[in-house]
Design a protein that fits this description.
Largest interface: A-B, 70 and 70 residues
Structural class of chain A: alpha+beta
Strand content of chain A: 15-25%
CATH superfamily of the largest domain in chain A: Zn peptidases
Shape of chain A: globular
Oligomer: homodimer
Largest sheet of chain A: 9 strands, mixed
Chain lengths: 405, 405
Amino acid sequence: MIDRGRLERHIAELSAIGGKGTAVTRLGLSREEQRARTLVGDWLAARGARVRRDPAANLWARFDSAGSEGRSPSILLGSHLDSVPEGGRFDGALGVLCAIEAVESLMDLQAPLRRPIEVVAWADEEGARFGVGLFGSAAAFGRLAPGVAERKDRDGVSIGDALRSLGETGDPALARREPKDFAAYLELHIEQGPRLADAGRALGVVSDIVGIYHARVTLRGRADHAGATIMSARADTLAGAAEIVLAVERIARAHPDGVGTVGEIAVRPGAKNVVPGECVFSLDLRAARGHEELVRRVLAEVERIAHARGLQASVDELARVEVTPLDRGITLLLRRAVKDVGVEADLFVSGAGHDAQNAQLSGVPTGMIFVRSSGGSHTPREFASLDDAALGARALAIAVRELAA
Amino acid sequence: MIDRGRLERHIAELSAIGGKGTAVTRLGLSREEQRARTLVGDWLAARGARVRRDPAANLWARFDSAGSEGRSPSILLGSHLDSVPEGGRFDGALGVLCAIEAVESLMDLQAPLRRPIEVVAWADEEGARFGVGLFGSAAAFGRLAPGVAERKDRDGVSIGDALRSLGETGDPALARREPKDFAAYLELHIEQGPRLADAGRALGVVSDIVGIYHARVTLRGRADHAGATIMSARADTLAGAAEIVLAVERIARAHPDGVGTVGEIAVRPGAKNVVPGECVFSLDLRAARGHEELVRRVLAEVERIAHARGLQASVDELARVEVTPLDRGITLLLRRAVKDVGVEADLFVSGAGHDAQNAQLSGVPTGMIFVRSSGGSHTPREFASLDDAALGARALAIAVRELAA
């Protein structure tokens, strides 16, 4: 039985860490994320889990139930505890809290489980600070890009530094686990779009996750006096970036199911009376079909526009995750579980990236449940009701029970 | 006689404040600008000037020479000590240093002067931090916009706060002087463009200063998840800003002598996987002819683009300075002085704003000398040679001697 009071209390306590009103800022590898891990780890330890942090700052809690064979592959479930800057209370957090609630409800019931259960809270899923999304799961499944620990934030602090300041060794690759240790990975997450809310459904099941390309583009031109430099003599990097922003929009609009976003931008020197001599901005390109073509078209425009304006462009690829179909068997199982709690279980393509990709692409049979959010995600307006969250936790518990039986 | 060694020493000592290599960051109303004022004030006090700071943080040094009548209007000369972020060693600074050198050379010669001489270092000419350029001279000539002391920087610190932390009262309007106190204002400044360098001339004289419009534009849309929000459902403020940046470029290019620049831009929340829900950027629009038309066209485009995209636009006008013809008599005098030091004295329109505008528009007969800069301005590459600086100081001394005689 789902304990709604416990779930509600957990949501409130976790929201307070990095929270201000309904806004939450709990960046990956920050003190706030660490406090969230401590809170969640304490709850799980109190229920008898063996709790540990790994060198990528992931939190693991293992339950070897009475009937479980110590060396058999475990059922893994979880999500992440970090947020974007000024994000909300549910993106990531709800998946960890519903995983905990699912496990606690099974223990309350003293359900017989033959497999070990592991709850995981992946570190730095959003990649808001260092530009490396799905960080913790990539480390655990051996999918980190080489040298990623050297990547720095705006203040020159590297991922390795951040890990060391959290008490880790600074080498996230040491977090690696074997995919064969896991019989399945289940992740519950709020839907980042409005489809469940529009359809009036509490839950859905994910069939595929879109391909995602992340890059940081740097344009170099020349800083000049805004008053004394005639228009034809300029090498204005912001004007170049503006053309690229509009090209991203135009190309993504023309793509059947593509989206393209420039969400970060900065100019140097950054004074109103100086032509920007340098401009750095992010690229986020996604599609479930034709993803490579989308990326290729945008990069060709970056090159063309920079060349036409006499600017130097360099593109620093931060992440490229292929389109990920989730496991058919697990997906069927989740659809049955969702139907068992009384919800029509439609299939959705996820436009957002998820740690589930790293599990699935490493060979762990993986599935995802979406919970309706009435205000989108990555914003203080994101909202999943307690009713919907409890339904999600129940469906998760049903699936875990079946997988572990 | 110009003392080249002294001038060279002064340039080096002043450059060291906020300096790193050839780059200087000495923002208006900062500790660094304050240290520069103290250094310069000490030099002037050592030559017998009465030195004081006013409530707008301007530095004044008054010489009542033996022959001068205490109450007669003074000859004012100077420039500013602040820089843009990562600016250079000469923009502003050279004008103060050449003013000091001109006065010191006249005192070395014991030149007979009937009028008092005042050297001024205007505070926060660049307006890099608070967005209010020509701040100190506007305060002294009663031309500050109402409520300007409440204007805040990015960290929420107001101009009033900044002044108080420098030991002033926080009310810059108290810095007001009477225009009739001054018989003339002379300012030497590096040319911000390449015309003198291209013509192979060390000095030039300014006939007019362009009209300048400064504003901060805020676009408000909606922050959404970059993966889960289809292109047609977005209210992306950076895409709107990009259209405006390109409109500014297009309109300025079509204007006979206009320039338009977006030199600052910031998005919120500012994460690569979030559609920017808010975007703030600067506008800098200048022209010697048809300035109002240039501003009108750009603002019409801001409104049109925001409306077409479903964004809310607000335009916060920071400064609007009309086209300023400098004083004919002073300009003639400066051309003679420049010729006296052996340089063909061509006339130039200044595309940059100068404190000289506030003096001239308040009725003080005002003139300006440009010194060649080989690397533009507002950049660590800006460079005026010691030879050219010494020629400029000598021309300034000749003009002061004639005006004060």
